[in-house]
Amino acid sequence: MEQRRKRGWTLSVDVGGIAIGGSRFVTIAGPCAVEDRRGLFAVARGVRRAGAAILRGGAFKPRTNPRSFQGLGKEGLILLRECRRRYGLPIVTEVMDIREIDLVAEYADMLQIGSRNMQNFPLLREIGRSGRPALLKRGMAATLEEFVGAAEYILAEGNRNLVLCERGIRTFETATRGTLDICAVPILKSRLRCPVIVDPSHAAGQRWLVPYLAHAAVAAGADGIIVEVHQDPAKALCDGPQALTLPGFRRMMATIRDMLPIVRKQPA
Amino acid sequence: MEQRRKRGWTLSVDVGGIAIGGSRFVTIAGPCAVEDRRGLFAVARGVRRAGAAILRGGAFKPRTNPRSFQGLGKEGLILLRECRRRYGLPIVTEVMDIREIDLVAEYADMLQIGSRNMQNFPLLREIGRSGRPALLKRGMAATLEEFVGAAEYILAEGNRNLVLCERGIRTFETATRGTLDICAVPILKSRLRCPVIVDPSHAAGQRWLVPYLAHAAVAAGADGIIVEVHQDPAKALCDGPQALTLPGFRRMMATIRDMLPIVRKQPA
Amino acid sequence: MEQRRKRGWTLSVDVGGIAIGGSRFVTIAGPCAVEDRRGLFAVARGVRRAGAAILRGGAFKPRTNPRSFQGLGKEGLILLRECRRRYGLPIVTEVMDIREIDLVAEYADMLQIGSRNMQNFPLLREIGRSGRPALLKRGMAATLEEFVGAAEYILAEGNRNLVLCERGIRTFETATRGTLDICAVPILKSRLRCPVIVDPSHAAGQRWLVPYLAHAAVAAGADGIIVEVHQDPAKALCDGPQALTLPGFRRMMATIRDMLPIVRKQPA
Amino acid sequence: MEQRRKRGWTLSVDVGGIAIGGSRFVTIAGPCAVEDRRGLFAVARGVRRAGAAILRGGAFKPRTNPRSFQGLGKEGLILLRECRRRYGLPIVTEVMDIREIDLVAEYADMLQIGSRNMQNFPLLREIGRSGRPALLKRGMAATLEEFVGAAEYILAEGNRNLVLCERGIRTFETATRGTLDICAVPILKSRLRCPVIVDPSHAAGQRWLVPYLAHAAVAAGADGIIVEVHQDPAKALCDGPQALTLPGFRRMMATIRDMLPIVRKQPA
Prior knowledge:
Chain A has helices spanning about 1-10, 35-50, 75-85, 100-105, 120-130, 145-155, 185-190, 200-205, 210-220, 245-260; strands at about 15, 20, 25-30, 55, 90-95, 110-115, 135, 160-165, 195-200, 225-230, 265.
């Protein structure tokens, strides 16, 4: 079957000892933004127990408005590193500013390029040159053709440690924050040999819908998910409504574990 | 879990002895258009063997251009009825014209309202009044709010035999024909008690992508799928590129059968 | 200039003695729905004085939800005919139901096919066969290619009395009800010889934006506009927020009159 | 009228002696990319004669694919400066890389932030800090709310020399490159006191449609346009199909001059 042949070609990307791609399904989880030590550690502990392999958390947050909470910056990076030491989870966090690549690379195992920067070509090039594992999120209105083009800016610098992330596109529908483009998974995998993961949180925009999208992603052959989890979503400084609670995350993971054998994958 | 509680509420719709909804997963399959006896029968036999419970096939085709093939009309209905007799598959076919409801209802077990007619309110009302099982497809640019409103035109006439179908919405992405809105499944099920099925063929627009969307639909809790299958897609008069071959359909069904226990469903 | 050459080819459509197309710019104005005699007559008198040549007003209203006000039906048609007699304004009103074409044609000078019915092909064909002047509105998510295809269903029946209407398409932007696609005007005029008018009211969705779109339509070479005006928008049963007041309509018309010589048109 | 009152509030931005905003209508014209001295000078001379007040031209080009022509870089800036000296036209050119702001600011009168960088917040902040006149283009799928948020990143640094540019949004329609959102002009002017101009070239994507959008922009109260002109579009290295020829530009400008008194503006 076309599907299986293509899967076989996906390269594996090593992120702090965790393999993304190949026959592995990776779960990256954590809060939208790093807010404080206590909360971050609670989430890290909880998601690790439930099966997450990598911790996500924003130190530099791209916000629509300059008056919104912009993240803890370097302080957030320090907390993420501490967390990695304590729980053994590799870290992925966003770089927004080309001048901060070195700083972020010092603390994180994988550099995330957010949707708003998908076509920030100087940033793509420098992250390409850094050789560090990179997670490139699809722009909100980027065609798959443009997404592949953006990926090529990184690959062209010789950096093959690239993971792509479908996170929902902007459409007329307002019941959800984005519309997850499930076909992006097989199409991207047929175009490039990079692993492709899915962000169900930003697509759904609402907690209760996240598991449906996560399960759909598994079924469509995604190499993993990146999902927002918060120890107390009602108090989150950013994107609370779409953050899973720890119990919700555990339930979602249980179903994912049941599904993996059907798509011939194992947890990373 | 929210998901399971909600599923429990879905009403079951009986279509020629096949139950849609509840704990059943229905597969509706067949050609885009009824073209001739030989082809129709070959597809019917093939999809029944592979696990389809209902046969689809268009006798009246809504086409963008008046010069395109418009379907065989009544002759197509007669072939569908013959096919039902021979293979025991209930029939679903589209009604485009309010004046033809009685005619179509004489031959078909379920009346389909196509995307272009989702807000053809007189048609919705009359199909509501007919009391016949109805399959309402989401309009290409209809919000879920509008889809629910359209469903209410049928329900308001006292017809509860209604199944909704998500079939991909129109977005900027041109790599696929539509963008399947996976969240439509749980959202619609939380709003109305009607079963919700998915049409992966029109969303994908390309054969090789159809199974990915079908599997995603199962994972997201859909009550079934409606999928285009053709005995020789290269010769199809309509939508050939998105029609599965019979072997492709069988492979897709094998994976679906593996998945159903995980979503706690059985084949209809 | 390409623009002027193409304009020269537009056929003229006669609606109750008013020519649409050619070197004429037509203003069609009136309430969203016919509500009562007093209000309708006040609007008719007001818009005629301000330069409108045709009266619009809905007797049958397509509403998203079956519980919303659905129009006065035949009673509304009777009021429209009275209004025509008193003020000498030809009438355009929507037909939603193929079974009501004859009824509406008895009262109205021009039959409107609404956005939701742009691909209601039986309705298009019957209106084509009726030979009556028709106003076809673009579907909310119809490509121009599909719009041309829909127009061809009417033209193919030998009815050349067709006017097309761009009314804003559905996009991700929520600040307005639709996004007016200005390029639709020249593109449609290059594809078909039908006059093309613009509906600034449904695109804007807010009163204060309507004149901007109307003026843009004039500048882009539209053959006219169809605009909602209400004697007391705060009390309108339907679409009040986008209805111009009579004074607002007069101001808009004054600017349009100033612009017409620049696009080499005269008021119809 | 609301429209006129709001216009009165627009602040004026000085770009190399040319006032944008207030009662002035500015025309910015030039090639997509600076390609060579001879071509650039031919375009500059031609557009100045036809009424352009500012020269545009890309030295650093953001391209979807890393293998496409990326602009002449500093060499392009040098040519632009020469051109300014010879023809007295202020220069606007794009900055893509935060590390090149000083370099570009040395050569250009106004710094353009392209659509792909509308939410490149570090770039916005640094351009805000530079105090230099800035031209911020709307992102392809940015809501007006997000566009205003992006503008506020610049304004928050104390830089009021900001001009906003509507350039067409991404929609399902494929007949044009973007869909120009005419309502963006009045809505942005009601939200911020910045001048708002329109880019008809990127919205249309085809030469023959550009004048229609430019005229619509004038009619809707835009403070100017930025338009691509090439001395020989068939040989352009970038965006040739949407570049006006010099004769086409002159014809468009003649109509604009006729329209300006109606919107109570004068050429800048």
